[in-house]
Amino acid sequence: MNLKDISTSVPKKDHKGKVSGQLAYISDLKVENMVFGVLYRSPIAYGKIKSIQVPDLPLGYEVVGAEDIPGPNYVKIIKEDQPIFANEWVNYIGEPILMLVGKDLDILYGLLEKVKIEWEEYQAIFTLEEAIKQKAAPGVTMANYEFGESLEIISAIEQGAHQIIEEEYDTGYQEHVYLEPQGMLAIYKDDEIVVQGSMQCLYYIKNALITALDCGDDDVRVVQSPTGGGFGGKEEFPSMMACHVAVAAKAVKKSVMLVFDRSEDMVVTTKRHPAKLKYRTALDKEGNILSMCVEVYLDGGANVGLSSVVLQRALLNSAGVYKIPHFHAKGYVLKTHTVPNGAFRGFGAPQSFAGIESHIGHLSKRANIDPLEYKRKYLVKQGDPTITKGNFRDPILMEEMIEDLLNTTDYKKKKVEFQTFNHHNQRYKKGIGTSLFLHGCGFTGSGERDHIKATVKLFKSKDDLVSLKISNSDMGQGIYTTLSKIVAKELDLPYEKVSYPYPDTKEVPDSGPTVASRTTMIVGKLLERAAKKLKAQWQNGVEQEVTENYVHREMIPWNELTFTGDAYPAYSWGVNFVEVEVDTLTGNVKLENVYANYEVGKVIDDRVMKGQIDGGLAQGLAYGYLEKMTSKEGRIQQKSITDYGPPTSMDVVSIQSKVFDNPYADGPYGAKGAGELTLIGGAPAVQAAIEDALQTPFQQIPITPEVIIESLWLREGEEG
Amino acid sequence: MITFTLNGRKVETDAPPSARLLDVIRDEYLLIGTKEGCGEGECGACSIFVNNLLQNSCLIPIGSIEGAEIVTIEGIMESDQFKILDESYSEAGGVQCGYCIPGMVMASAALLAQNPHPSEAEIREGISGNLCRCTGYNMIVDAINLAAKKGDGLWQKK
Ligand code: FES
Ligand code: FES
Fold this sequence. Notes:
- The complex is a heterodimer.
- Helix content of chain A is 31%, strand content 24%.
- By secondary structure, chain A is an alpha+beta fold.
- Chain A folds into 3 domains: 15-22 and 447-549, Aldehyde Oxidoreductase, domain 4 (2-Layer Sandwich), CATH 3.30.365.10; 31-122 and 176-268, Alpha-Beta Complex (Aldehyde Oxidoreductase, domain 3), CATH 3.90.1170.50; 275-444 and 562-719, Aldehyde Oxidoreductase, domain 4 (2-Layer Sandwich).
- In chain A, the strands form 6 sheets. A 7-stranded mixed β-sheet of chain A has the order 3-5-1-12-9-10-11, sandwiched between helices. In chain A, strands 7-15-14-13-8-26 form a 6-stranded mixed β-sheet, with helices on both faces. In chain A, strands 16-21-22-25 form a 4-stranded mixed β-sheet, with helices on both faces.
- In chain A, a hairpin with a 5-residue loop joins strand 17 (455-460) and strand 18 (466-469).
- In chain A, helix 8 packs parallel to helix 9, helix 9 (349-367) crosses helix 10 (371-378) and helix 16 packs across helix 19 (682-694).
- In chain B, strands 2-1-5-3-4 form a 5-stranded mixed β-sheet, with helices on both faces.
- In chain B, a hairpin with a 2-residue loop joins strand 3 and strand 4.
- Chain B contains 6 helices and 5 strands.
- Chain B has helices at 21-28, 73-76, 80-92, 101-114, 120-126, 138-150; strands spanning 2-6, 9-13, 47-50, 53-56, 69-71.
- Chain B is 37% helix and 13% strand.
- Chain B has 2 domains: 2-76, Ubiquitin-like (UB roll), CATH 3.10.20.30; 80-150, DNA polymerase, domain 1 (Orthogonal Bundle), CATH 1.10.150.
- Classes of the chains: A alpha+beta, B alpha+beta.
- At the A-B interface, helix 1 and helix 16 of A face helix 3, helix 4, helix 5 and helix 6 of B.
- The structure holds FE2/S2 (inorganic) cluster (2 copies).
- One FE2/S2 (inorganic) cluster binds at residues 36-39, 41-46, 56, 58 of chain B.
């Protein structure tokens, strides 16, 4: 492939099948002897099952439950706390208890209504507030970490401080709303079970199946179907569905399909953790920061799942992009009897950035300095230590990226213009807000070395066609295109001669899960190296295969216990400027202009990158003011897309974005991670813009029209 | 027995009148281009044409379409208009996970047939019933804009 610059866009590999709709997603498949499964789910939040009564089932209909699981009854993720079929205790409304299988879905739903269960019900914890009160009670704290400056030193600083500012900040649920609901199929064969479906992490699923089915490596096989969006929602959740269908297929000796409809998907699948963040900051007379303590509380839901890892990332980002003197942080994952929360693009970082950007913005008011100017005073620079005593060793382009947007937006002039506009307008108010952020690329600490140990292969056929053998999922983010392109360019082969089939664990090694902004940087680098190797030993007309394994470059070793060292090998960076108009009568917020600069090392494909920017930012902005999900006594209240309110084409505006080059030595062609970064700056920038328009601080996202109206009333009350 | 035209072919189905057109299209005629994203008329993934009008097939009971002309994405796949849309979506990079795309393409075709030179605001309105969670819409808006330009003169024809 003869591209002068790797960033030059090429046609997407999977375009044809997708534009015509002829590419088969999991719900488009029909296999011989296939039955459907439906799940009976707990109607109560917390209790003990006393008895289960299943109605008489017609011929061809069967029930599958905990007794059918050959192995232990849990979904293997990190801890053993998530039953496949709850048969003793239930911990949230919607927890699966048993499955009915048969040919006709209508009959199955009818039968579900006749299942009877007797309970002993217990007092549940429904809210994060309540869990915080009870955090010392047994089982409530599911994970916690603490690190940073000693509290004695901080208390001495606080004693000498001019003032101490305390703030509490709340963030809500966010639901993925991947457009394709979750779906999983187990194909029954005499000697193996093939599990196929919509997923991000093939080997997570395979390992969960080996445990649940208590079987050998060759007895299960996992195949990814085209995946209609993931955003983290298809990271750990599909492991549970895979266990359901595989256990059922084994029990009834038929292929079993489980596909959620939208309301089931909205109510029972994992979501972004609601969080409470507390800040306590000591300031001197001029408003300079002397010390800061941060507490992060995540609502884990009913079991820990990946929440401890999410909390780590939330804490690692708790100081944002700033060098804060005498910084201390601690955090907790708390149990509530609600649907378990899990991975979502950004993985704990969006909560932390929303919180710290809000807090720093509010501090700037105390110092009487423009928020952006105040933020710049504390911006980290190359060579600075991280909050965990790691190091920002690579060049940081944030100053250039900010300067560029100051010019593009004509920030200073605009501020004056908006002030004049607001002065003359009673009803509509305009504002501009900014956010500064980063994203640590790849797994936290030594995860790649100790847990993932990625391996990739390249296979060359006799016809000199090359295929990628990796376990990573394209879920729309475009790695079919970008990873194929890296290999084609490295091998100097036409792009068409490189293929990347949908991964199947029988064919591909474990190159790790498709998460954590690691795919392009880590897997891409391994592929680049594999391609170099293949090129060196290339023989025309001969079948060849090369393998590459992950090699860890040791920096300041990460220690999870003390929370010290380099948490990430590299960071990607971003700056967002957002302009809004707020209708003070209705509380509606209209986006007017959105500007975004990013630095991701080197872009592998301009068009794919732009797709990540526009899509990620749309999700991030909406997280700040549009998307609202709540739970009441353990029940998710928004069961449809409209109730929840993700952005439509009318809510989004065209985004002016730019990506800065800053090649990273350990990424392919210098590339770092990009997929999560683009979401993170949206919410804090939109909050800052709304605050600028209304000259009112907020302590939460989403800032919905109701929140705005209420705060305006409150202010009127105070002023009146 | 209900009779209707599906992609230009007369067909009969004995599905119960309350069956959703979406399911009949997918399960009986095995046309997989029409997707289900919500089943409640909120996402547009199941968009089709009923007598030339864009509709959500998940909301239509089969009993209500006796004699109607139904066109799915498979029914327009060979047209010149589709080729232009295909090219434009590719050039603009409007396709990510792809799940919303057949519905978006149907909505794009419907919009351009009615309004061959839409403004950006008209494009946004034209696809406002179609949800996309991946792209943030802008590259889809670009694709439709491009298709309007490339297919100049093509859209008015019937
Ligand atoms: S499936 Fe018909 S509108 Fe969503
Ligand atoms: S491309 Fe994924 S929903 Fe539109």
